[in-house]
Specification:
The protein is built from 16 helices and no strands. By secondary structure, the protein is an all-alpha fold.
Amino acid sequence: MTLEPTRAPAALLAVALTGSVLLTGAFASWPTVLFVVAMAGVLFLAAYETSWRVVVAVAIIPASLFVAVAFVPETRAATLGLAVWTALVSSAILVRRDVLTRGLTYMLPVYLVHTAVILFQAPNVHRASGLIGNANSAGALLVLGTLTALYHPRTRWLAVPMLFAFPFTGTRWGTAVLLIALGGVAVLRVVPLRVLVPIVAIPTLALVPFYGHLAGAYRIQPSIAANVARIATDTDRRLYAPTGPSIMPQGVVITHGEHNVYSRISAEAGVIAAAAWVGLGALAMYRGRGRERWMIAVIMLLGMLDYYMWVPGKLSLFWWVLLAVNIKREEREHGTSPA
């Protein structure tokens, strides 16, 4: 029996996404081999389609990092790793949309394994990180998994364990983004309210006995004023940008601040690359529809207070895949060939 042409590259894309999630550092462990081999397989097997204008806009970003490699010796090794990684993951913009969409759907079992690992870790750690090694990233991955499950009638109820596991990551900004995403699903009637309400209510009620543990994970304080002060302090720390934007790419910024992905890119790759990044995201939001549009919106919102869609590993490959899916949708729907 022969496989449908999109299935093999889509399966390899799911493997590449999984490998990128498992990475704890750039080019540092066996998941790197898994990622590189799978991504190379995707690019070898998948047919290509895209506008050359989009390719040029995308190429600005890794090219800017290579400029920093050449002219900023202080962080050359780290910047080279980020530049090579960005060049590889941004090549997803070339791949056919149906391959990318199917690859995202194939990730559902990985989301469920991630959920199970979080629940296994929860009793023994302050904040569970699942497969991804970082609690904030772990929560973000569950948001993407929840949206993936909700957008198909046959898999909607798989969102229940993901929503139950989510609070054990203790990600405050991720929680706000999850609530925004669920609100959008409700308003747009992606899932009938008679189905969505129990999907959300069941894990919410099941979490009540774990309030004490979750209060520690979220660092809940005894007064409202104390909670507001802690959130404000944490937000200020994450938005702190000691390097600032620069016309000339500065290379990898190693600092406790720069958690805002847009600020970080404007420093590391320069303002031209940052403008390309934001412009591509805006184009994806304009052209996109449905599940993938919500998924990239989630990543863009999360990027306001974290940068794991930019650094090697974590969610950076998800960003580029979702960018490609949404940008290509308009061409597919109107039956036009790429310009």
